């Protein structure tokens, strides 16, 4: 995110034949799972709060606004904290904020206050922002520069694992059991997040005890600084990368946020519990897509794969808008597969060859996650006035921007 951290200009730690970064990579990759799991629960909360707290679809979209607004507002401070105190302390701070936000779900449920849930989610998201600000760039430098896109996509696969486990848990805990009882209580949310808070604190303790190699970015950047004298925003591939990331995250969040609404409204006989299960299956497809896409990048250039997947998702969005019943729902589910590689690929392409600007460049990439705060509000507004199906025009437009980035926007222009 904006601010002040990310990968060194060379894109990797100094080569050391004796260095073994396997354990640090495994430990940091666990963070991808943790924020994936938090996000996987988020989309099920939309429908659950609509049912239990009687909020509109537009108002429920404020959950995504609070979540991704936390990313936007915390991005620069997170970067500054990590520059001053290092990745390890920044990660521990993120985990503590994550736990505090999760624990605050308990009193929020007691008060039955939607606004309190928004505040709890905002604090939790600030913690996740710290984790993403550290983990995404850190993974790109734990190895060779040439394989940074591959390595980041591989770690992001575990983000997908967490994302699909969230909806499966929600289908059983939030929407399962006695429907009459669940319609009026929030204890399932309350205790789920209490357990999450405890687990996150345990992970924070592991990081406190572990040794993580720090990156002396100033040293690494000094060798290439003369090659990258252009101001950051005069690198078109970076600027378009931030734009593409904003619209990609907007599409991803919008598609997931209204998945349950779309499934229950367009496919007769589909309950919220079944729709949540289908959302879980969709996120399994997302995870499979990450592994498949990571393998394909061995033989297909990342920008070409990005463009192809974006085009396919444009066509699938048209099917979601026009079709009904199982065809529309299955088309919606396939979108998850083809959006799987977009975030890490855009991230890696956007910060490539920025030299001394890599730190703030990566920070702005994470800041672009704020796109997820905007799309659910637009989609909720359209859904309340037209239909949930029509609201999918928003992610369709977003994927058009991603398509442009994969075709042309990614290109690195040399200084003239």
From TrEMBL:
Gene3D superfamilies assigned to the protein according to its UniProt record, in alphabetical order:
MFS general substrate transporter like domains
| Keywords from the UniProt entry | Cell inner membrane, Cell membrane, Membrane, Sugar transport, Transmembrane, Transmembrane helix, Transport
One Pfam family, short name please?
MFS_1
Annotated transmembrane regions: 21-42, 62-82, 89-106, 118-136, 157-177, 189-208, 238-263, 275-293, 305-324, 330-351, 363-383, 389-407
> Where can this protein be found?
Cell inner membrane
Asked if RNA-binding is a keyword of the record, the answer is: no
Provide the Major facilitator superfamily (MFS) profile domain boundaries.
24-414
Q: In what way does this protein cross or attach to the membrane?
A: Multi-pass membrane protein
Q: Which domain of life is it from?
A: Bacteria
Output the CDD domains linked to this UniProt entry: MFS_FucP_like (cd17394)
- The main location is membrane
Q: What does this protein do?
A: Intake of glucose and galactose.
Family of the protein in this entry: Belongs to the major facilitator superfamily. FHS transporter (TC 2.A.1.7) family.
Please report the name of this protein according to its UniProt entry.
L-fucose:H+ symporter permease
């Amino acid at each position: 995110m904006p601010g002040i951290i990310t990968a060194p200009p060379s894109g990797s730690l100094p080569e050391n034949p004796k260095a073994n970064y396997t354990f640090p990579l495994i430990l940091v990759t666990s963070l991808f799972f943790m924020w994936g799991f938090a996000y996987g629960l988020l989309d099920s909360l939309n429908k659950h709060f609509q049912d239990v707290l009687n909020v509109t679809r537009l108002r429920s979209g404020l959950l995504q606004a609070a979540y991704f607004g936390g990313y936007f507002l915390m991005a620069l401070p997170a970067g500054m904290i990590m520059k001053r105190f290092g990745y390890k302390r920044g990660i521990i701070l993120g985990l503590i904020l994550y736990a505090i936000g999760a624990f605050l779900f308990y009193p929020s449920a007691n008060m039955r206050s939607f606004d309190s849930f928004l505040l709890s989610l905002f604090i939790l998201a600030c913690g996740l922002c710290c984790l993403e600000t550290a983990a995404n760039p850190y993974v790109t430098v734990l190895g060779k520069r040439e394989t940074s896109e591959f390595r980041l996509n591989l770690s992001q696969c575990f983000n997908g694992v967490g994302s699909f486990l969230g909806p499966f848990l929600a289908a059983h805990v939030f929407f399962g059991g006695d429907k009459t009882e669940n319609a009026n209580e929030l204890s399932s949310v309350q205790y789920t997040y209490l357990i999450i808070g405890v687990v996150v604190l345990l992970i924070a303790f592991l990081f406190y005890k572990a040794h993580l190699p720090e990156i002396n970015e100033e040293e690494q950047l000094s060798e290439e600084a003369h090659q990258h004298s252009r101001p950051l925003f005069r690198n078109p591939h970076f600027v378009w990368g931030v734009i593409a990331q904003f619209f990609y995250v907007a599409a991803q969040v919008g598609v997931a946020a209204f998945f349950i609404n779309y499934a229950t409204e367009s496919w007769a006989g589909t309950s919220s519990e079944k729709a949540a299960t289908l959302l879980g299956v969709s996120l399994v497809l997302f995870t499979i897509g990450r592994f498949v896409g990571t393998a394909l990048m061995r033989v297909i250039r990342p920008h070409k794969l990005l463009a192809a997947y974006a085009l396919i998702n444009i066509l699938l969005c048209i099917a979601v808008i026009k079709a009904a019943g199982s065809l529309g729902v299955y088309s919606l589910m396939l979108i998850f597969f083809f959006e799987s590689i977009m975030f890490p690929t855009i991230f890696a392409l956007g910060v490539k060859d920025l030299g001394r600007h890599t730190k703030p460049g990566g920070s702005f990439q994470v800041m672009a996650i704020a796109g997820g705060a905007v799309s659910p509000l637009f989609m909720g507004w359209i859904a309340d006035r037209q239909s949930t199906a029509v609201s999918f025009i928003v992610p369709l437009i977003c994927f058009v921007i991603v398509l442009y980035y994969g075709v042309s926007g990614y290109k690195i222009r040399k200084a003239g």
